[in-house]
Amino acid sequence: MRVRSLCFTAAAAASLVVMPLAFGDDYNVDTMHSGVTFQISHLGLSWIQGRFNEYSGTFSIDSSDPAKSSFNFSVKPESIDTANAKRDEHLKSPDFFNVKQFPTITFKSTSVKAVKDGYEVAGDLTLHGKTVATTFILKGGRSAEFPKGVQRTGYTSQFVIKRSDFGVGQPTEAIGDDVYVVISFEGVKK
């Protein structure tokens, strides 16, 4: 009887060792159902609006322990689109984004905590060769199955960054320093 009990205990302990640990759900950003847009003041008279057409991202959500969640995004500034080709070419030049030298904008989270209706996400935003600690609130987290068999969730955030923090363009009264950013994304569960 004692041998059987020892064998059962050893087998139970071994099964605990090989059982995979649950770390949350992993997602790829679905760019067909997402967007990265911005607006900036021109002369204090109007708002110039634009978007980036090429971006990607992954994120992991651990609802039981939000601190284990993470968000990683990448944007190609070459894909900037303000609905004006001449302005877009100028924005891609060394005067602003300098896309040849700095082809990617990235965000990598360093901490995530639950807040009402979403998460507070802190991380490193790297733009124009400079990295600045950035914090924003992601609202959302509802889930849906679309199409059948594909699980997805989504979030939205609005936040402000300063051009001067990243050295994008010279300070001028014509163009505001504050850039109002909106990101809205759906993730497809891996």
Please describe the structure with a list of short key phrases separated by commas or semicolons.
190 residues; Lipocalin; single chain; alpha+beta; disordered N terminus
**Major sheet: size, sense and barrel closure?**
8 strands, antiparallel, barrel
In percent, how much strand structure appears in the residues? over 45%
Helix content: 10-25%
Mean pLDDT: 90
Describe the protein in words:
The chain has one domain (23-189): Beta Barrel (Lipocalin). Strand 7 and strand 8 form a beta hairpin. It is globular and about 45 Å long. It has helices at 2-18, 85-92, 163-166, and strands spanning 25-42, 46-52, 55-61, 70-75, 80-81, 105-115, 118-127, 130-145, 151-162, 175-189. It is 15% helix and 55% strand. It is built from three helices and ten strands. Strands 1-3-4-6-7-8-9-10 form an eight-stranded antiparallel barrel. It is α+β, with helices and mostly antiparallel strands and 190 residues long. The model is unreliable at 1-22 (pLDDT under 50).
